[in-house]
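Archive record:
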Amino acid sequence: MATDFLWSLASKVIGYTVGPIARQVGYALLSESYVNDLQDKCHQIGDAGQEIQHNIEEALTTEVGNRVEPKVLRWSETAAELKGEAEELIERKKKAAGCCGCVANPITRYRLGRKANHNSLAIQNHLAPPPLTASFYFPEGIATASSSQSICPLQSRDSMFEDIVKALADDSVNRIGVYGVGGVGKTTLLSQVEKQARASKEYVEVVAALVSQNPELKKIQQKIRETIDRVKIKAQQQQKNDKKNDKEQEPMTKRAVLIILDDLWKKLDLEEIGLREMEGDIKFKLVMTSRYCRVLADEMHCRQVFHLEKLKNDEALKLFANTVGNKLSDPLLKQTAEELAKKCQGLPLLIDALAKVLQNSDSPKDWENALEQLEKSDSVHKALEGLMEEKAFRMKLC
């Protein structure tokens, strides 16, 4: 009995002492393995962090100003710190290894292995559970308002559309700019230009890319590269067909490639996204939007620049009425609608979003409540968010 107790005690003592000692020795012997594992973890958290950061930027640069929950921002900041620490340690290992590729000093190997293991565990813990992408808050109806605006003919927009099409038809103009404040409808207008261009068959290719405040240059480069490749393939195919049919058609490269770049905040280097290469042997026309005239006229050297202005009161009301349907036959609702449309400051994006909130309500009280919130709020965007939340709450009660 006493012997069993002593063996049990001895095994525990050995476990408490040998285990930690072996682990400490392992840091030195397996430091290379620990650093390699850290490198894998560094890639993982880098990819996850990039995805979350992209979502954050997209949320914060949306026309109507969505918000991101603090825990998502904190996750992103911590991920960046962990990635930075890991990269620093990996770089230290490379310097310590020198040209021979291995770290000779056992103390240095121990420290690198121990730190690499510690950092790997920290990254692993941060990635599990995965980041909460659902914590981005997009008010219902606002985030997609620009793409879901009701089709409503407005004279000012129709006139601008015709001017752009006319400029595109001018061979002496290869860069066109459209500027206006956020929410005025630049993206919607350009989507109509893109649709018309594709249907017309006047262009050998039509490609559109979102630039935004923080452009993803690699994605834009890829789109341009794929476009250039398609044009070249089409040109080669045409040459083969011409030889086969013993007749010569107008060269494919004589037709222009239409490139639409939406939402420029500053000068965009065309060479950096691959357009300089296209300029050599492929004709192209460029249509760009920005909030700032100087970006288009001075920095991007557009030959023609158009100012997309806010809607006048009559067109604002027309757009509002088009979304809510026949509700404005009620004199009380029509009177409130006129005030609501004015409060949206002539911005189609806001008008359409607000109208969507009210389109299922026939209650003058609801409409007056919406007007009251807009009048009290220092921001139309914030007031709309409040109305969206109230609408969602009521729908849950139904």
The chain is about 65% helix and 10% strand. Confidence is low (pLDDT under 50) at residues 9-19, 60-66, 133-150, 390-398.
